[in-house]
Amino acid sequence: MHPITRLLCASALVTCSTVVVANAADTGARTHWHQAIQSGYESLATDAAELATVATGYCNEPTPESRERLQSAWLDAFLAWQRVRYVNFGPVENSNLSWQFQFWPDPKNLVARKASYLLGTDEPVTDEVIEQSGVAVQGFPMVEYLLFDEQLNGSENALPATRNCEVLTAVTRHMSSNSRTLADNWTAFKPHYLETAQYRDATIKAGMTALEILEERRLAQPMGLRGNGKRNPYITDAWRSGNSLMGVEATIVGLQQQFLPGLVTLLEAGGNLALAERIRHQFASVTENFPQAHVPVTNLLGDDSQFRLLQNLYVDVSQLTTLVNDEAAVALGVVRGFNSSDGD
Amino acid sequence: MSTRFHPLPLTLAVSALAFAGCSNIPWASAPAEPATKASVVEHYATLAHASYEDALTTARALDAATDRLIAEPTTANLTAARQAWLAARVPYQQTEVFRFGNTVVDDWEGQLNAWPLDEGLIDYVRADDYQHELGNAGATANIIASHRLTVGGETLDVAQLTPELLARLNEVGGSEANVATGYHAVEFLLWGQDLNGFNNGAGERPVTDYARGSDCTHGNCERRGQYLDAVTDLLVADLEWMVAQWAEGNDGNYRARLTAASADEGIQKMLFGMGSLSLGELAGERMKVALEANSYEDEHDCFSDNTHNSHYYNGQGIQNVYTGTYRRVDGRLVSGPSLSDLVEQANPQLDEQLNSQLDASMEALGLMKAHAESSQHPMAFDTMIAPGNTQGAEIVNNAILALVQQTGSIEQAARELGIAALAPDDAGHAF
């Protein structure tokens, strides 16, 4: 038993038994979460290593086939990241790894500005240069820019231009190294995560924040459902490669596979069987009704009949968010504090 | 207001309950009666009123100074107008803590302080050093050079540059970066684009941009003057409205509604404002994004290089609300029942901790200000965030960390005062 619990039991015997049950469920949930997130990080490390290898291979021998392999390796790694992106505590906070993987949103097109500097400089682009270049350079959006930006692809700097290849291989190496570090640090973090009761709430809040970001920032805002009502594909993730919706789907699947089982364990231990079932059902319904994920969101935003597909998805996701962020949070006594979305 | 957002919550390094230093609180001298939640909320409204009054006074001085510049475009008058702008920022930045939680402020402030802006909407920019928001059809509209504008399929008559017209042009074409009004529009009209990147130096707009006849540089000097006149008039009018909202003895204003509602609601707004500005806005959007992305596009006062002061006085505003004090621009001290008094009644150790953390934040922000204003080796915020500037990064990071730490204690204070949810719940209320 945890020392704090022992203390509680000594002073308040009446509440002791429920505390013990709750604690067993907490430990069970955290054990599951740790393992699930570990496997998420391992996939990311594997896919990012593959991306780095394929990038080098392409630059050594640029053929249409190797280009295709490169683009699909980027997508695999990007989706692996989307599945585990919701984790916003623990080792991913070190050196700001989360922002390094994906600096987003980027309304001022910083990625283009930084790329144009790196592609235009006479200095060699070494690993050290990438290390020093800030989060807009160090992750998925930069590689996506190098691979998919229309303007760049029409210029003399388009891949496989030497300088572009230098940036591409250095950035993918950087991502591969970061993802390996992250997976290893998550392993080392295990005892602390399992021993520290606060990580129960931290993990639940991470899932809640991810759902809120999905609903508000990745769907409602680009769909023009907020603020000034303008539809704007540029504020989605991965708009350059047309993979925004695949990214959304990957995040939901990641939450379903990694986050949901622990959440259900806790809800059921607290007697909230019906709510647990409704949440499980709603996750299934979002993934089952997911619109054709291969359609770029730009197309869906531009066509009113297609837009309805997005509206349906939005409604499904909002219902899920309400169930988790309102009902489950109250049932589990999770109080949300300040987070970075409190700004404007 | 911009909806910039970065999804990674800053670490709430919930510090161990350490007795980290004891702050000396000169204003805590023997209050006549113990503070109550109601008296604290009442005094909060008094603080807000005094702060907005000062913002108004200094905005009127700015309006007068820009009128002189327009009438007589001399270097001395340009310098005086810039000084007046800098002085106006001091009280205004201290009011930002009233924004979050008080919808009446949040819905209004975009017209005054929206950023970052695509300044090409307003006036000329250097094409090769101007990065605007993706998909913004108005990013290079140049209102000053045009009598008609076509933005996103909409054609607008902009021949007469009036305050009302400029207010309507905000977010034209649906882009939040289309900021036609407020402090940053005035800042751009006084300083111009900062073309120095990470190097020292702010915008260098020549005074001849307001000159008459053939002395006029960059064209349309008269319209530029009309724009500056209209935008400063609007700023004054907007602040007059907000001062009235917080004035005592008016049954129909915001203060009356706030003080008539439950005191817990008011306390929650106070804490929510402090925490939101501290963590999400100041530490996150205004410092961490700029630093981690090495992005001077994300610098708050980017034309004038006054960002250090904007940050410093934001921090001061947070401390003002907690301690119930405000040093007015004329030197008078406003003080009264405070959150600090309430927390001290409930948990003296937490009160001491939060007070010392607020002091530590002001010290870290003060160091940033001192470096930026150093006469020997000035290092402005846009230089601090340059790639490879480890000293600059440390200065900014220390300020971020201090703000993150104090936010953890603000959350604790909320719990201590029985405020469970910090999300503003205004369902069923008119504000």
TrEMBL record, chain A:
Its main location: other. Residues 1-24 form the signal peptide. It comes from the Bacteria. It is found in: Cell envelope. Keywords: Signal. One of its GO terms (cellular component) is cell envelope. The keyword Signal applies. InterPro entries: Imelysin-like, Imelysin-like_IPPA, Imelysin_sf. Residues 37-323 form the Imelysin-like domain. It holds the Pfam family Peptidase_M75. This is Imelysin-like domain-containing protein.
TrEMBL record, chain B:
It comes from Marinobacter profundi. Residues 1-20 form the signal peptide. It comes from the Bacteria. This is Peptidase. Residues 48-409 form the Imelysin-like domain. GO terms for cellular component: cell envelope. InterPro entries: Imelysin-like, Imelysin_sf. Pfam families: Peptidase_M75 (PF09375).
